[in-house]
Write a structure and sequence with these properties.
The chain is of the alpha+beta class. It has 13 helices and 18 strands. The protein has helices at about 5-10, 30-35, 65-70, 125-135, 140-155, 200-210, 225-235, 270-315, 325-340, 355-360, 365-380, 405-420, 450-470, and strands spanning about 15-20, 25-30, 55, 65, 80-85, 90-100, 105-115, 160-165, 175-180, 195, 210-215, 240-245, 250-260, 345-350, 385-390, 395-400, 435-445, 475. A hairpin with a 2-residue loop joins strand 5 (about 80-85) and strand 6 (about 90-100).
Length: about 475
């Protein structure tokens, strides 16, 4: 037998649903039982498009599957032995068995375990899923996992509702944070917010003392439970089971189930199951709380480190980069320009006759002038790699990566123009009635032997030449 046609004569007679797949032609064949199960029209050859109206879900991961996945997954035996089929708003749990026919042809048989998937939760599988979902829960998906856990516990306990309540920080009110309801059951989550605990004293007395509230028939509640009985009748609750949740030995909420359609004699197994889910949720909340505290501590540490870095690398007076930051940045930018064989320019500038300025106008005015100059230089450094730094005293340095001599000279001219626009009076200057700068710069395409000290020395020599030639000048380092 080398194809679907060769084997179909035998397989189509099997008394259960059979799908045969040929990986070479990518076609399927379905016997009458399979056609009925998947609501398909009679036909000899089927392709993936014929199955577009069905939805397949893994009962373990709850992730959707393609029909092709059922055949692919069995490249590893026993990975999956059941699948949820959703079709026409009805869900079935299907037991599936896989077999190879030959290298290209394989088959899967399908048997319906029960007609209502919600009645078929295997609690061991359910609790495993809940644990796996909540063990490493993240803040952004917590609601979905809690809702799944409530649906699961409500289903296995044959309840009509299941819910989670939390108490406020003052432990005086409770709110319904999550709720699952069965089909046809009225939800009450929205109306159960900020409920004063004082309205349900009997409930909370038992909950505080025993962490358990178990009532098979609410009509049997004592007269002291009048408030509780009234609330249960309003919600048409006939039976209710709640388990307290504690955090650091304090009752912080509860998980519960109730029955509306008919009364239920809660079993020890129900109690064990809801208690187990409650403990898993409590541990999940502990993990979330721990993660939130850890994230807060990490953010505080990051913020503190950022502030420390700013303090370490920022000049206290002018708030631009300081000498320490300049030295580190300059070394890095030299190496980067070496790698890409790009030019780098260094400008060093000095406020002309600044001592006279301080002597005449006072140190407070001198500090103010330094701040204005620093801000001006900072505003001119528009590219990510540009850096303006206070080099020392009234000296400033500007690092200009990927900048040649011509552009460094243009940048220096911009500095002088913008400083002139500040119009800072300096009547004690020998070159102007306004505050001015002398500027020296040096440009080079660095190589592996280039060191920062040499570039700084040459830019400093250019600054010296600008001062010696009359100040308020721009001078480029010359090798001559």
């Amino acid at each position: 037998m080398n194809s679907i046609k060769d084997i179909w004569r035998t397989l189509k007679c099997l008394p259960f649903a059979v799908l045969v797949h040929d990986s070479k032609t990518r076609n399927y064949k379905a016997n009458n039982q399979a056609l009925k199960l998947f609501k398909l029209e009679q036909g000899d050859e089927l392709c993936a498009n014929h199955f577009g109206h069905i939805k397949l879900i893994s009962p373990l991961s709850k992730k959707p599957l393609l029909l092709q996945n059922l055949f692919d997954v069995y490249l590893i035996p026993n990975v999956l032995n059941s699948v949820v089929l959703e079709i026409n708003e009805t869900a079935f749990l299907l037991n599936i068995k896989f077999a190879y026919i030959n290298e290209t042809v394989s088959m899967i048989t399908f048997e319906i375990e029960k007609h209502k998937i919600d009645e078929q939760y295997n609690f061991d599988v359910v609790i495993s899923n809940i644990s796996a979902d909540l063990i490493d829960i993240q803040n952004d998906n917590v609601d979905g996992h809690i809702n799944y856990a409530l649906k699961a516990i409500g289903t296995v306990c044959h309840a009509d509702r299941s819910y989670l309540f939390k108490f406020n920080d003052e432990n005086s009110q409770m709110s319904n944070t999550h709720e699952w309801v069965n089909k046809g059951i009225v939800p009450f989550k929205d109306s159960l917010q900020d409920v004063p605990k004082s309205e349900l004293p009997y409930f909370f007395k038992l909950m505080n003392d025993t962490y358990l509230f178990k009532v098979n028939d609410v009509s049997d509640l004592p007269a002291s439970a009048g408030g509780e009985k009234k609330e249960f009748e309003l919600q048409k609750i006939k039976s209710v089971l709640c388990i307290g949740l504690s955090y650091e030995k304090e009752l912080v909420g509860f998980i519960g189930c109730d029955c509306v359609a008919e009364k239920r004699e809660w079993t020890n197994l129900d109690l064990i199951r809801i208690k187990l889910v409650g403990e898993i949720l409590t541990n999940a909340f502990k993990n979330i709380n721990y993660k939130q505290k850890l994230e807060l501590a990490q953010q505080q540490l990051i913020t503190a480190n950022q502030k420390l870095s700013e303090l370490v690398n920022t000049d206290g007076l002018t708030t631009i980069a300081n000498r320490r930051c300049f030295d580190k940045t300059f070394e890095d930018e030299i190496q980067r320009c070496v790698r890409y064989q790009q030019p780098i320019s260094l400008i060093i500038c000095d406020i002309d006759f600044f001592k006279k300025y301080n002597d005449s106008y006072g140190h407070l005015k001198g500090d103010e002038a330094l701040k204005y100059v620093a801000e001006t230089l900072q505003n001119l450094c528009k590219r990510p790699g540009d850096l303006a730094a206070r080099y020392g005293g009234e000296e400033f340095a500007i690092i200009l990566p990927c900048t040649d001599s011509e552009n460094a000279n243009c940048f220096s001219t911009l500095i002088q123009n913008d400083i002139a626009r500040l119009n800072i009076e300096h009547n004690q200057s020998d070159v102007s009635k306004q505050l001015t700068l002398s500027i020296g710069f040096y440009s080079v395409i660095p190589n592996t032997k280039t060191i920062a000290k040499d570039i700084i020395s040459k830019a400093d020599a250019a600054l010296y030449h600008a001062k010696e030639s009359g100040r308020n000048k721009i001078s480029e380092y010359s090798h001559k």
